[in-house]
Write a structure and sequence with these properties.
Elements lengths: L6 E4 L7 E5 L17 H4 L9 H12 L3 E4 L21 E2 L2 E2 L8 H28 L5 E8 L2 E2 L2 E2 L4 E4 L7 H8 L7 E3 L12 H7 L5 E7 L6 H16 L6
Parallel strand pairs: 2-3, 2-6, 6-11, 9-10
Antiparallel strand pairs: 1-3, 4-5, 7-8, 9-11
Length: 247
């Protein structure tokens, strides 16, 4: 049996002044957690991971010759884009699905999940950023996510969306570039804004350091096949190429 890895790094020595991150890349549940009591079909759903996000991250990292840190643990085990003390970090219910393996967690079990899966992932991001800064670079942080086509019975028309808080050094030019692409609908803080009270990764690694950043959402029905992943990585990458580098 393959030992569970909390993250993997793509091309740690890549020279570009950017770091890609993918918080919800994997639907993997460590063996000892027994699939959190869920049937296999539930772990293929959006509740377990951001469908398509890992593939897009890999393509972009290769295209831009930049390192990437890709999370290896399902968001149902611990959501690496939530503060560990947030109840949503280890949800008991996700999109109306009960998560038996998250019920009645002891304080010790909570601490263990943070130490095994959350902290190593974020330490890897921190190391890459500090490596860039020691090399005299000021890296931009690029966080890749995907979103469901609908939530709560409400359809989402946006095929791609930029989420931002206050710093729009990258999000505004990216919105402008994407809006020039024919026949796509672009979300501006829709359906999600970047919220430091809720999001963890970009606030911790980029906003706190004053680094330029992007948080992007791809609609999952657009990126649930290899062809869709390749297409949207190209669309987004073409727009990004006109925006980077950032000083």
């Amino acid at each position: 049996m393959t030992r569970h890895q909390p993250f993997h790094v793509i091309d740690a020595e890549a020279a570009a002044p950017y770091v890609f991150i993918c918080d919800h890349a994997s639907n993997a549940v460590p063996a000892g957690l027994k699939d959190l009591g869920l049937p296999a079909a539930e772990l293929q759903r959006h509740i377990a991971w951001d469908i398509g996000a890992a593939g897009i991250t890999e393509i972009l990292a290769e295209r831009f010759k930049a390192p990437a840190v890709v999370c290896g643990t399902s968001r149902l085990v611990i959501d690496c884009n939530r503060h560990p003390d947030d109840p949503a970090a280890m949800p008991v219910v996700s999109d109306e699905t009960r998560i038996p393996g998250n019920e009645n967690l002891s304080p010790a079990q909570h601490v263990e999940r943070v130490a095994r899966y959350f902290t190593p992932y974020h330490d890897a991001i921190k190391r890459l950023i500090e490596q860039k800064m020691l090399a005299g670079q000021t890296p931009a942080i690029l966080s890749i996510h995907s979103m469901t086509p609908a939530m709560g019975g409400v359809a989402r028309p946006w095929q791609i969306a930029m989420s931002w808080h206050e710093d729009q050094r990258l999000s505004l030019p990216m919105l402008n570039a994407l809006r020039q692409v024919p026949d796509i609908t672009v979300g501006d803080n829709q359906p999600y804004a970047l919220d430091p009270a809720e999001d963890y990764s970009v606030p911790e690694h980029a906003i706190r350091r004053g680094l330029a950043h992007i948080q992007v959402e791809f609609r999952q029905d657009e990126v649930d096949t290899p062809a869709g992943v390749a297409n949207w990585a190209r669309i987004f990458g073409d727009a990004l190429a006109g925006v980077l580098p950032v000083k």
